[in-house]
């Protein structure tokens, strides 16, 4: 595939400004940081919005001698475009990050006789348990959407993605509600910090993945995907399944383990 280089555009510069603003805002305001992050993601979406050349399957499938394998359409069995392997590395990085957070939780737990410390009560089980059921259920339409587009079923892809986004959004909303009901915040002690960090990081991960899924849903309405161009759907499924599996040890650690030991 011959990929034309972009012409003069201010979008990368605006994306960098939004990202810098989001990063600096973390020092002063969580709300501003969230707004800045959303603006950054929007700018990235605009930056990478497929052009007519990118949408054209003939151009996507055209092979150029000695060219790098950057096409979103891979014609050789078992091959994937570069962004697929980049996402695999992202999953590895996130696994290490959350593994370190979980290890920190149990390290803090090992240093005290009573957990949570003092007269603090562990978080309630009702809302996070319901949220967990919604998150587990969301993996089903994500899987069905992937299988649908492999059969060139555009309608099945759209329905699967829409259901996945709704179920994932319910999960995020329920967890945010549960966070607002906690009797402690991240600044009260080490327990509060690790609980808020674990939950906040996972909510952010799922939230960003929801935005990415919504982006792909919009492209699906434009018939961008088909049986030959499925890698982006598979990548999104990979990160979504990871987010679902990742939640299980977090749920056990924060909500169940204080009642068990």
> What count of structural domains?
2
Given helix and strand content, the structural type is mainly alpha
Second rung of CATH, namely the architecture of the largest domain: Up-down Bundle
Query: Which spans have pLDDT < 50 for at least 5 consecutive residues?
Result: none
Count the strands? 0
Kindly state the mean pLDDT as a whole number? 87
Q: What is the overall silhouette?
A: globular
CATH homologous superfamily descriptor of the largest domain: Cytochrome c oxidase, subunit III, four-helix bundle
Q: Can you offer a commentary on this structure?
A:
The protein has 2 domains: 1-74, no CATH class; 80-260, Four Helix Bundle (Hemerythrin (Met), subunit A) (Up-down Bundle), CATH 1.20.120. The longest helix is centred in the C-terminal third of the chain and has 32 residues, at 190-221. By secondary structure, it is mostly helical. The protein is globular and about 65 Å long. The chain has 9 helices and no strands. Helix 1 runs antiparallel to helix 2, helix 5 (82-110) packs parallel to helix 9 (231-260) and helix 7 (154-180) packs antiparallel against helix 8 (190-221). The model has no long low-confidence stretch (mean pLDDT 87).
């Amino acid at each position: 595939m011959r990929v034309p280089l972009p012409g003069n555009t201010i979008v990368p510069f605006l994306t960098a400004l939004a990202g810098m603003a989001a990063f600096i805002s973390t020092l002063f305001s969580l709300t501003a940081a969230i707004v800045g992050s959303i603006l950054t993601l929007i700018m990235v979406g605009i930056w990478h919005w497929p052009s007519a050349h990118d949408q054209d399957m003939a151009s996507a499938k055209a092979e150029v001698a000695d060219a790098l394998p950057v096409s979103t359409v891979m014609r050789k069995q078992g091959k994937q475009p570069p962004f697929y392997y980049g996402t695999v590395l992202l999953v590895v990085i996130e696994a290490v990050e959350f593994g370190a957070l979980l290890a920190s939780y149990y390290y803090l737990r090992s240093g005290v006789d009573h957990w949570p410390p003092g007269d603090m009560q562990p978080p309630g089980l009702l809302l996070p348990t319901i949220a967990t059921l919604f998150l587990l259920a969301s993996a089903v339409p994500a899987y069905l959407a992937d299988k649908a587009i492999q059969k060139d079923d555009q309608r099945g892809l759209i329905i699967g993605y829409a259901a996945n986004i709704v179920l994932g959004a319910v999960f995020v909303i329920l967890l945010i509600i549960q966070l607002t009901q906690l009797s402690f915040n991240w600044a009260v002690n080490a327990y509060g910090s690790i609980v808020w960090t674990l939950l906040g990081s996972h909510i952010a991960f799922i939230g960003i993945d929801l935005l990415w899924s919504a982006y792909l849903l919009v492209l699906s309405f434009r018939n961008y995907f088909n049986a030959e161009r499925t890698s982006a759907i598979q990548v999104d499924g990979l990160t979504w399944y990871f987010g679902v599996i990742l939640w299980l040890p977090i749920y056990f650690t924060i909500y169940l383990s204080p009642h068990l030991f």
